[in-house]
């Protein structure tokens, strides 16, 4: 089974470098254009099912993609939500640096032992992400068509680290562009990361590494 994983288009809070977590910021104008480019990139894929985080930046991205795939079911799953950033949510990146600099550095370098104040633990996000993966594999294990998943930065990084058997403390060394595509082929003998943060379809709409601060 192939899982096509997309990071949502740029949100308004991505654009202004504001921490979102599970707060529900909409797509920016650029994010909508990125979602349409994603839809064109994936329009000829054979899709068995769509899964999305219920947060609107992911759900809206998926709705635009799904317009080319009439009749394919769409499932909203809270397991795909971004990590809850706790007290960081709603704050600008510069504010988090000023108020929580030590904790931010720990999150970036050692996320497994980090927890944002009043936020969600790394282990809880990992637990729900792996449970989602197992549920999708159980449902679609013999599927010849792809499953498309629209979700967030941390969830995608965990899925990638899992298939590569990476140390989860290294996930923040993976850069995922808004509107990018990553693909994992799950097989009985060995699973493969087929593409990572593919963004050629975005052209000059791609936000380069370092173009977002609130991560």
Give your account of this protein's structure.
The protein is an alpha/beta fold and 215 residues long. The protein is 36% helix and 15% strand. The chain is built from six helices and six strands, in the order E-H-H-E-H-E-H-H-E-H-E-E. It has helices spanning 12-15, 29-42, 56-66, 93-109, 122-140, 153-164; strands at residues 2-7, 47-52, 74-76, 146-151, 181-185, 192-198. Strands 3-2-4-1-5-6 form a six-stranded mixed sheet.
> Remind me, CATH topology?
Rossmann fold
Using only C-alpha atoms, the radius of gyration works out to: 16 Å
Q: Could you give me the name of the CATH homologous superfamily?
A: Phosphoglycerate mutase-like
Beta content comes to 15-25%
Low-confidence stretches: none
Task: Enumerate the strands of the largest sheet in spatial order, edge to edge or round the barrel.
Answer: 3-2-4-1-5-6
Shape: globular
- CATH architecture tag: 3-Layer(aba) Sandwich
Q: Tell me, what is the CATH class?
A: Alpha Beta
Average pLDDT figure: 96
How many domain modules?
1
Distance between the termini: 30 Å
Largest sheet: 6 strands, mixed
The number of helical elements comes to 6
């Amino acid at each position: 089974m192939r899982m096509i994983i997309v990071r949502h288009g740029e949100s308004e809070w991505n654009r202004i470098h504001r921490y979102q977590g599970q707060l529900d910021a909409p797509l920016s104008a650029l994010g909508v254009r990125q979602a349409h480019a994603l839809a064109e990139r994936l329009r000829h894929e054979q899709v068995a099912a769509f899964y999305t985080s219920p947060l609107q930046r992911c759900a809206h991205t998926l709705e635009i993609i799904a317009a080319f795939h009439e009749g394919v079911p769409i499932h909203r799953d809270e397991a795909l939500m971004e990590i809850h950033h706790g007290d960081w949510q709603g704050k600008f990146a510069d504010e988090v640096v000023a108020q929580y600099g030590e904790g931010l550095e720990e999150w970036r370098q050692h996320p497994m032992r980090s927890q944002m104040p009043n936020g969600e633990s790394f282990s809880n996000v990992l637990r729900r992400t792996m449970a989602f993966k197992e549920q999708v594999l159980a449902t679609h294990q013999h599927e010849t068509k792809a499953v498309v998943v629209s979700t967030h930065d941390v969830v995608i990084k965990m899925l990638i680290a899992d298939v590569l058997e990476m140390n989860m403390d290294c996930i923040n060394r993976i850069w995922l562009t808004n509107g990018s595509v990553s693909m994992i082929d799950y097989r009985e003998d060995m699973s493969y990361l087929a593409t990572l943060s593919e963004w050629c379809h975005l052209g000059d709409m791609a936000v380069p590494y370092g173009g977002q601060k609130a991560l």
